[in-house]
Design brief:
The protein has 427 residues and is mainly beta. The strands form 10 sheets. It has a 4-stranded antiparallel sheet, with no helix packed on it. It has a 4-stranded antiparallel sheet with strand order 5-6-7-8, with no helix packed on it. Strands 9-10-11-12 form a 4-stranded antiparallel sheet, with no helix packed on it. It has a domain at 331-424: 2-Layer Sandwich (Alpha-Beta Plaits). A hairpin with a 2-residue loop joins strand 2 and strand 3 (23-27).
Length: 427
C-alpha cells in the first residue's frame, strides 16, 4: 500500500522525484516510466542539487538526478523536521535545532529551545536571501504561534515574536514580506525581520497557500480563492468538503474524478471521464502531473486535456555510491559525544570514555566539548561510532593538537592514537 502521505519533490527541469511508502520514485527524462529505490523510514526531506532525506537515525544525501548514494550522517537521536539553507541543513526536534553543513554533512552548531512542537515556517531558504542568513521556526501553543528567527551560521536566536495561531503562511521574495493567516480570520503581514506591518480581517480561515502572478491562491474549508498581496479577495470558488485538493496543480479529486481549475478564473475547466483516481502529485511541470488510481497504478496526466499515459515501474536503480567529498588535509573528523557548560561535567565524561580505552579529549571554546578523534576519513569515524557503541555528532574541523601516543583495542581490532590522529594498525 502507498502511504497516504506523498511528498512531491521539485528536482530540476529534467527530473522529478516523489516519495511514498518508503520508496523514492523518479520520473525518467522522457516521461515514459518511473524508476524506484527503497528508503528506510523517511520522516522528512528537502531538496536542491541533492535530495536530503531524514530517517529515524540517519540523514541521507542522494544525487537528485542519478539517485546515486552520496553520503550519510548517523544521528544520535530522532528529529522531526528538516530545512535547507544555501550552506546548511537544519534538523528540528522538540527542544533543539541542529545545523549541519551541506557539503560534508558535518555538525556545525545547535540551538536549545524551550520544549515544544517546533516546525519550520519555511523549509527551503536557498533562494530567499533573508537578511543575516535567518531561518524561522514556529511553535503553536494554545491560540498563539511563537516564531523564532535564528542565525543559520551561529545558531543565535535573533528575534522572538508571538502572533495569533497561524493556519497558513507564505513568504514573498518580491514583496519581502511574510503573510500569516491566523485562526481569527486575519491576514497579518510582517517584514523580513518579523516586525509587524499591518493586519487585515479576511473573514475566512485559510489552510493552504500557493503563489500566483497577481498574489496568492488560498484554500480553506470548501473553497478556493484568489487574493492580492494587500489582502483583497477578488475571486471565489466553492469546493466540496470531501475533495482532495492540490493547489500547486490547481486540481482536485472529487468522487474519484480529477477536476482541473483555471488559475485565472478559479472555475472548473476540465473533468476526467474515468472515476478511478486516488491521489495527484505535483512534479513542477506546467504541462503534466502524476496521478495514482484506486489500483495504485501511476499515470502521467496532461494539462489541460487530462489525457492519461501509464507509467510502468522499472527495476530499482542500483544502490551506487558517489566518491566521498575530499577534505582539506589540515582538517579531521571527530565524534562529539557531549557538550557542557561545566568543565567538571566534561571531564567526567572524558574519564568514563578513557576507562573504556577510548582516546577522548576535552576541547574548550564556547563550551566544553568532549570529542573522540581525529580521523582522516569519514567512513572510519562512522564505523567507530558503531564499534564503540556510542552516539555523537560527526564534526569536520581543524586538527586538535595532542602529544599522546597510545595503542588501544576495539572489537578485537588494534588502533593507535598518535599526534592527534586515530589509525588502525595492520596485523
Amino acid at each position: 500500500m502507498l502511504s497516504t502521505l506523498i511528498y512531491s519533490l521539485i528536482i530540476s527541469c529534467n527530473s522529478s522525484i516523489f516519495i511514498g511508502d518508503s520508496t523514492i520514485y523518479q520520473l525518467d527524462r522522457l516521461k515514459t516510466a518511473l524508476y524506484s529505490r527503497p528508503i528506510n523510514t523517511p520522516i522528512d526531506y528537502v531538496v536542491d542539487d541533492y535530495l536530503y532525506v531524514l530517517t529515524r537515525r540517519q540523514l541521507i544525501k542522494i544525487n537528485a538526478n542519478t539517485l546515486k548514494f552520496a553520503d550519510h550522517l548517523p544521528l544520535p537521536y530522532q528529529f522531526s523536521y528538516l530545512l535547507i539553507t544555501p550552506l546548511y541543513l537544519g534538523l528540528v526536534t522538540s527542544n533543539e535545532i541542529v545545523l549541519v553543513e551541506r557539503k560534508n554533512l558535518s555538525y556545525t552548531a545547535s540551538v536549545g529551545m524551550e520544549a515544544g512542537d517546533y516546525k519550520p515556517l519555511i523549509k527551503d531558504y536557498v533562494s530567499l536571501n533573508l537578511p543575516g542568513n535567518r531561518i524561522i521556526i514556529c511553535r503553536d501553543r494554545g491560540n498563539k504561534s511563537i516564531l523564532l528567527s535564528i542565525d543559520a551560521q551561529t545558531g543565535e536566536i535573533k528575534r522572538k515574536t508571538t502572533v495569533n495561531r497561524i493556519t497558513a503562511s507564505y513568504y514573498s521574495k518580491t514583496e519581502k514580506n511574510f503573510y500569516f493567516f491566523d485562526i481569527s480570520k486575519h491576514l497579518q503581514i510582517y517584514d523580513q525581520d518579523l516586525r509587524k506591518k499591518t493586519s487585515k480581517n479576511t473573514g475566512i480561515v485559510v489552510s493552504k497557500t500557493s503563489p500566483d502572478p497577481s498574489g496568492l491562491i488560498i484554500e480553506g474549508n470548501e473553497y478556493l480563492s484568489l487574493m492580492n498581496y494587500d489582502g483583497k479577495i477578488f475571486d471565489y470558488q466553492p469546493v466540496p468538503s470531501s475533495s482532495k485538493t492540490n493547489i500547486n496543480i490547481m486540481a482536485l479529486i472529487h468522487d474519484k474524478r480529477i477536476i482541473l481549475i483555471d488559475a485565472l478564473t478559479i472555475r472548473p475547466m476540465n473533468i476526467s471521464f474515468n472515476a478511478c483516481w486516488r491521489d495527484i502529485i505535483y512534479i513542477n511541470d506546467p504541462d503534466f502531473f502524476i496521478a495514482i488510481d484506486t489500483l495504485q497504478m501511476f499515470y502521467l496526466i496532461s494539462i489541460p486535456t487530462l489525457e492519461t499515459r501509464p507509467l510502468p515501474l522499472k527495476k530499482p536503480v542500483p544502490y551506487i555510491s558517489e566518491p566521498p567529498v575530499a577534505v582539506e588535509p589540515a582538517v579531521l573528523w571527530y565524534i562529539q559525544v557531549g557538550a557542557f557548560a561545566s568543565r567538571d561535567n566534561a571531564e567526567r565524561l572524558q574519564q568514563s570514555l578513557q576507562q573504556r580505552d577510548l582516546p577522548a579529549m576535552v576541547e574548550e571554546n564556547d563550551m566544553f566539548r568532549v570529542k573522540i578523534g581525529g580521523f582522516t576519513d569519514k567512513e572510519t569515524a562512522r564505523y567507530f561510532i558503531e564499534a564503540a557503541n556510542t552516539t555523537g555528532w560527526l564534526v569536520l574541523q581543524p586538527k586538535i593538537k595532542s602529544t599522546e601516543n597510545i595503542g588501544f583495542s576495539l572489537n578485537s581490532e588494534n588502533y593507535r592514537f598518535n599526534d592527534g590522529i586515530i589509525t588502525k594498525e595492520q596485523p
